[in-house]
């Protein structure tokens, strides 16, 4: 509920790193980073993961609101 809303659900790429964000960016992520999961923490966080964690291990804080 609340924790799910605070957590981003999209996996995006910045430069050459994968991160999670609630806003869709024009940049496309490599196939290795296609899943964004929520971490049970407070505040709730999220990370990009896939079959190859070596490509997606960058943690992500809750979605920033500019």
Short summary of the structure?
8% of the residues lie in helices and 33% in strands. With 66 residues, it is mainly beta. The radius of gyration is 11 Å and the shape is globular.
Number of strands: 5
As a whole number of angstroms, the C-alpha radius of gyration is 11 Å
Q: Give the averaged pLDDT, no decimals.
A: 59
Strand order across the biggest sheet?
Answer: 3-4-5
Structural class: mainly beta
Total count of helical runs of at least 4 residues: 1
List the helices and strands in order. HEEEEE
Helix content: under 10%
Secondary-structure topology with pairs:
Elements: H1 2-6, E1 10-14, E2 17-21, E3 35-39, E4 45-49, E5 59-60
Antiparallel strand pairs: 1-2, 3-4, 4-5
């Amino acid at each position: 509920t609340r924790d799910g809303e605070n957590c981003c659900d999209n996996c995006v790429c910045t430069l050459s790193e994968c991160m999670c964000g609630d806003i869709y960016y024009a940049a496309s992520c490599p196939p290795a980073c296609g899943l964004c999961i929520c971490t049970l923490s407070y505040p709730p966080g999220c990370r990009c993961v896939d079959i190859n964690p070596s490509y997606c291990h960058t943690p992500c804080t809750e979605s920033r609101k500019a």
